[in-house]
Amino acid sequence: MKAVQSKVRPCYLILQFCAVFHLIRFFHRQLMLTRQAHVGHDGRMQQTRFGHSWLRALARCAGPAALAWAAAAPAAAAPPPFEDSIAQRAIACTACHGPQGRAAPDGYYPRLAGKPAGYLYNQLLNFRDGRRHYGLMTQLIEPLSDAYLMEIATYFSQLEVPYPSPLPVAASPEVLSHGRQLVLEGDAARQLPACVQCHGQAMTGVAPGIPGLLGLPRDYLNAQLGAWKAGQRRAHAPDCMKEVVARLTVEDINAVASWAAAQPLPASTKPATSLPALKPGAVAITCGSAPAPAATAAVPAKAQK
């Protein structure tokens, strides 16, 4: 029973935190829509009038929110039966990452469903151990064991849910052509490997540890590549992505993200089971990866680049 309670407590804390977080976002949006009063040139009076407008907006929002809270109270008093299943516990993750881990509509929280289990597990470790930086994620997973993180990663990796159609990308033909060149061919003069050499010829990733590039918004791809270039995102040593992104310019990053975000998904979105054949003249490099929990340390895999 204590083992079950140890799993239940973090999940309910996560659910409570997410509920408060989204209420704060709701009120913030309402307040940002409040019209600011303009009273001549009296700055002090303008601040006072703006303060009253802020309070009126809060009062307007608080009434409906209180009614909704009261209506939800009976349901909260009788939660669904506890199953002690990973599917029920993973619901906490979907508050940000979307139903079934499909991704949030704002493009900020990425898709989890169908990603390789080893990749998801490594990213959870990276957030917990400081190689990736997002305070909310770090606080949520800090108390969880390696085995539990692997259980979460495995669950989401096995979900098969459809991808949405790619959103239109506002980029010139020249930018898209440059992005296509880097993704599919690389740049031998700058020792830049093609993205597909590691992420798979179909760009759906390679199991167990390499993610796909398709189905991700341009802003998300830009943010992650930019974080690597700025040293804000790291991976287990040897960090091959750090080496590759260091050779990219800001224009390269935008071109790659723009072209990849505009590509349709293939009929099968499952990760490949092996890396593509190494092209003539390409050099294989070593990428680090965390060993699976409760398993002997494995030799880092060779990434063909």
Q: Classify the fold: give the CATH topology of the domain at 173-304.
A: Cytochrome Bc1 Complex, Chain D, domain 2
CATH class of the domain at 173-304: Mainly Alpha
For the termini, the CA-CA separation is: 49 Å
Number of strands: 2
Description of the structure:
The protein has 305 residues and is an all-alpha fold. It has a domain at 173-304: Cytochrome c-like domain (Cytochrome Bc1 Complex, Chain D, domain 2), CATH 1.10.760.10. The chain has helices spanning 2-32, 43-77, 86-89, 91-97, 117-129, 135-141, 146-157, 173-184, 196-199, 218-229, 240-245, 250-261; strands spanning 284-286, 302-304. It has a two-stranded antiparallel ribbon with strand order 1-2. Helix 5 (117-129) packs across helix 7 (146-157). The protein is globular, with a radius of gyration of 23 Å. The N and C termini lie far apart (49 Å).
What's this, in brief?
This protein is an all-alpha fold and 305 residues long. The chain is 51% helix and 2% strand.
